[in-house]
Amino acid sequence: MIFKLVLLFTVIPFIELALLIKIGTIIGTFDTILLIIITGLLGAVMVRAAGIQCLFRIQENLRSGTIPTEELFNGVLILIAGALLITPGLITDGTGFILLIRPTREFVKKYIKKWIKSKIKQGKFNSNIQIHL
Predict the structure, then answer these.
(1) Would you say residue 91 lies in a domain?
(2) How many domains does the chain have?
(3) In a domain, 82, yes or no
(4) What are the distances in angstroms from CA 81 to CA 23, 53, 98, 99, 101?
């Protein structure tokens, strides 16, 4: 697991940097920097709106007496999208924007749930979550 994380945090930035350099040679340095700033600002606005919507749905669920598991899952994915969008780079921005679009977020949620279920069935999912009442 640590190897995968190290790989993720070293390979992705190198790919992002190479892509930004390539785009910079095509459209120019100023335009590339402007593109990064615009995607960051647009992403921040979109994450804020999606987060507020998610919070309202969580509150509605709680008022109706249901546990907001789906909305909490959405909230985590929106948080991840926000982290990706503040990271400079087009791949991370694209991934962040994909997570902000509700239909694609639903697809990602379905995939993650399927992955977790398969790991549980294989006995490879270790949860150390303790609930204290």
Answers:
(1) yes
(2) 2
(3) yes
(4) 23, 15, 8, 6, 10
Contacts of 86 (CB under 8 A, 6+ apart): 40, 43, 44
- Per-residue confidence (pLDDT) for residue 53, from 0 to 100: 95
Give the pLDDT confidence of 71-109 residue by residue, as tens digits. Answer: 999 999 999 999 999 888 889 999 999 999 999 999 999
Give pTM, 2 decimals.
0.81
Do 112 and 61 fall into the same domain? Answer: yes
Domain-embedded: residue 126? no
Distance, in Å, from the CA atom of 94 to the CA atom of 88, rounded to the nearest integer, reads 11
Q: What is the Cα–Cα distance from 60 to 70, expressed in whole angstroms?
A: 12
Q: Any alpha helices (H) in 28-89, and if so which ranges?
A: 29-64, 69-86
Per-residue three-class SS string for 114-129: HHHHHHHHHCCCCCCC
Domain check: are 49 and 86 in the same one?
yes
